[in-house]
Each structure stands twice: as structure tokens, then as C-alpha cells.
Design goal:
mainly beta, 212 residues, extended, 6-stranded antiparallel barrel, 8% helix, 12 strands, 4-stranded antiparallel beta sheet, Double Stranded RNA Binding Domain
Amino acid sequence: MIQGILGRKLGMTRVFDENGVVTATTLVEAGPCFITQLKTLERDGYTAAQLGFDEKKRPNSPERGALKAAGLDTKKGLRFHREVPVDTTDDLELGSRVDAAIFVRGEVVDVVGTSKGRGFAGVVKRHNFSGGPKTHGQSDRWRRGGSIGSGTTPGRVWKNMRMPGQMGNERVTVRNLRVLQVDPERNIVALRGAIPGPNGGLVMIRKIRQDD
């Protein structure tokens, strides 16, 4: 059985249960995806399925060849391709459709996405530093990081020192999110809590396997 699906983050809302308790919820358009390639243990050393998501116009020649091999329409390409784990490839076929119906209400999943890029950020925003004192003659270093190393032994800056730099725009995995609702007709999955990335960003919803 396939263990994940690609989707698009739609945004956040709230859901009320039968007791009137409100829960912050993220809606994800999960699929439809199409299997474009299968990885087997004998040929590739591991088992996985490559999924294509989000139709696009005018695929190039290599993309048309891959679509033809999978038995899909060569006039419409797929914008995103990602591998997802599978238990076995015996029950999977190239070109078959994967949608939100693989999830059930109450299931616990992991979500992988790319966080929002914040650009170059200082230590106060990037690492939650408190900044320097706002008195004793120091009026221009409120948001500075302070000293980053000693002048004697070891006389250098240690690796992994928290400093200003690029913030965000990195792969983030949020674990153990519960599926609150599933709408197979519209391919919408409601997940409890927040997931990484902007609205419209690509995410992967991954089932939790027993060995995780």
C-alpha cells in the first residue's frame, strides 16, 4: 500500500466537534496524484513510488516519454514529482490514480513541507535573542548578538555559533498530526494544527509506519 501523497496547502480554518470544542485546522488539497515510476528492491535497492501532482501545459520531451511509459496523457505534464514510501509495489500499477481516499478520519500522519522564507534575519528574529541592555550608554546595539568568541584560548569562533543569516526556506517535518476530516470527492484533508509553508505551497502527507 502507498504510504503518502502530495498536496497543496489551502489555508487554516477551525472545526467544531460534537461538544462544541474548537480546533485549529489546516486544509490540504491532497491529490489527485498519478504513479509515474516504481522503484523495486531488485532493480533499485529499495521500494518506493514516484508520484506526479498538479497538471501543467506543454511538457518537454523527457516528460512526455515518462508519461507515455506510465500510460498517462502526454499532452498534459505534471508539475511536481516526489517519491513516497510503499509497503510493496506488487499491488501498484504505473499511471494509477492516488487521492485523499487513502486516509481515514482519526489517522495520525506526518507532513513535510518547505517553510516560508524570511530572508536575511538578525539574531533577535532568527534565534529569539533578547538583545543588549537599553541603558548604560548603549543606545545603538539593542538587537545585536554581542561577543561571538574570546580573544585568547581558543581564540576562534566555534562552529554552529548562532549568528545572523538566512531564515526559513528549509525542509520542515511536522509529526503526529491527526486527520480530522476527509472529503474524497473534493480531495480535501483537514489536519489538526499548523503545517509548514505558505498557502498554495507543496506539501507531502505521509502515513506513520510501524518502524518509524
